[in-house]
Amino acid sequence: MKTLRDRILKDGKCFEGGILKVDKFINHQMDPNLMKQIAVELIRRYASTEINKIITIEASGIAPAVMMGFLLDLPVVFAKKKKPSTMNDMLTTKVFSFTKQREYNIVISKEYLTKDDKVLFVDDFLAYGNAAKGIIDLCQQAGAELVGMGFIIEKAFQDGRKMLEAAGVRCESLAIIESLDNCEIKLKEQ
Ligand code: 5GP
């Protein structure tokens, strides 16, 4: 997706340890127009797939997920990183965060992820695929069908896609970073 690739090259910043900062348009300040274009492109890629729910993880996946849910008129569920005191019947799993270097739990109420669901998972980044792995686990626990995953940015050098393809999960990314070596953003031609 050319608009996104150009924006990453213009406003993205590299950090130590293979981290790309996109705070100017995705992770802190957000560009709703770009977010809409992202949602439209992900919808186009999954046009032939039956989906009845979009799922994501708080916080940065919520914007693209809501945009897709709005355009498709589908409900959006975000996995929470803290169990609300009012939530009793829930699905839970552990996720290792590579950017924060610690493990955390994610929870989804059993009411909002069930065996009747055909879900598309959407997130801002695919790195090692730990968050994605957590979602696979929650879908298995619920008996829901995971029809695919969509990411705004994939870091190809961190192998999340390999894990997802080995697990038989369809994976679409709108911009693929080949390397951040020497603090230079190298994008894959698409
Ligand atoms: P994974 O679970 O695939 O290892 O990492 C994906 C999650 O970690 C995403 O939800 C994202 O929030 C965060 N993440 C991973 N790599 C980056 C990065 O380079 N930049 C930012 N801003 N977040 C990242």
UniProtKB/TrEMBL annotation:
Positions with a binding annotation for 5-phospho-alpha-D-ribose 1-diphosphate: 127-131
SUPFAM superfamilies per record: PRTase-like (SSF53271)
The protein's Enzyme Commission number: 2.4.2.22
Keyword tags: Cytoplasm, Glycosyltransferase, Purine salvage, Transferase
Pathway: Purine metabolism; XMP biosynthesis via salvage pathway; XMP from xanthine: step 1/1
InterPro entries assigned: PRTase-like, PRTase_dom, Pur/Pyrimidine_PRTase, Xanthine_PRibTrfase
Keyword field contains Disulfide bond: no
Protein location: Cytoplasm
Alphabetical list of Gene3D superfamilies matching this protein: 3.40.50.2020
Keyword hit for Transferase: yes
Binding site for xanthine: 20, 27, 155
GO biological process, one term: xanthine metabolic process
Coiled-coil region list: none
Enzyme class: transferase
Recorded catalytic activity of this chain's protein: XMP + diphosphate = xanthine + 5-phospho-alpha-D-ribose 1-diphosphate
Organism superkingdom: Bacteria
Chain ranges passing through the membrane: none
All copies of domain Phosphoribosyltransferase, residue ranges: 36-156
GO-annotated cellular components: cytoplasm
GO MF, any single term: xanthine phosphoribosyltransferase activity
UniProt record similarity statement: Belongs to the purine/pyrimidine phosphoribosyltransferase family. Xpt subfamily.
Role according to the record: Converts the preformed base xanthine, a product of nucleic acid breakdown, to xanthosine 5'-monophosphate (XMP), so it can be reused for RNA or DNA synthesis.
Entry-linked NCBIfam families: PRK09219.1, XPRTase
Assembly description: Homodimer.
HAMAP family in UniProt: XPRTase
Protein name listed in UniProt: Xanthine phosphoribosyltransferase
